[in-house]
Write a structure and sequence with these properties.
The protein has one domain: Rossmann fold (3-Layer(aba) Sandwich), CATH 3.40.50.2020. The chain contains four helices and eight strands, in the order βαβαβββαβββα. Strand 3 and strand 4 form a beta hairpin. It starts with 7 loop residues before the first strand and ends with a helix. Bound molecules: 1-O-pyrophosphono-5-O-phosphono-alpha-D-ribofuranose (PRP), guanine and magnesium ion.
Length: about 160
């Protein structure tokens, strides 16, 4: 699928993702987890924050690739999780977001009993996760702070006085 299905942008700051992840942890507490499996790369930052809030020390990853920036391609699992995780019972599976649900569906099949959480969710993928904090429209591209930088913005009057 191509990038032109996205019509809106939703930018998330570091503060915002930190707050949202803490809100997610408040929903999960007092559940205890044997460990966390982060879906890399996007799941790594929320997984680290969740591990700190819920005091989880055992952390593993499953590495899934499918997007080249906004263009969705073939899904590949390029690194599996530790077999000790079994069917995922007692483990927390974490990703930053669920969009079409393609990534979530592939990982869910491998870990059907894990508790699966994302911070952000779009409607097509929402049914695949157990918890999320913020739901955004399907045609919205979520911009994460790790993909952005702070840059100069021209004053409004100068933007309008150009022509
Ligand atoms: O629901 P879907 O349509 O499958 O999209 C969701 C996935 O897309 C992003 O990962 P991406 O493949 O861009 O890789 P990354 O985590 O390494 O950035 C995001 O982190 C999710 O894992
Ligand atoms: N950063 C980012 N990655 C994605 N991968 C699939 N959907 C998205 C999105 O909305 N934002
Ligand atoms: Mg990802």
């Amino acid at each position: 699928m191509s990038a032109n299905r996205y019509r809106k942008d939703f930018s998330i700051t570091w503060d915002q993702i930190h707050r949202d992840t803490r809100d997610l942890c408040a929903r999960l507490y007092p559940r205890e987890f044997k460990g966390i499996i982060a879906i890399t790369r996007g799941g790594l930052i929320p997984a680290g924050l969740i591990a700190r809030e819920l005091n989880v020390r055992w952390i593993d990853t499953i590495s899934v690739t499918s997007y080249d920036h906004m263009n969705q391609g073939q899904l590949n699992i390029i690194k599996p999780f530790d077999p000790v995780v079994g069917d995922g019972e007692g483990y927390l599976l974490v990703d930053d977001l669920v969009d079409t649900g393609k990534t979530a569906r592939a990982v869910r099949e491998l870990l059907p009993k894990a508790c699966f959480v994302t911070i952000y969710a779009k409607p097509e993928g929402r049914p695949l996760v157990d918890e999320c904090i913020t739901e955004v429209d399907q045609d919205t591209w979520i911009q994460f702070p790790w993909d952005m930088g702070v840059s100069y913005v021209e004053p409004l009057v100068d933007q309008f006085n150009k022509d």
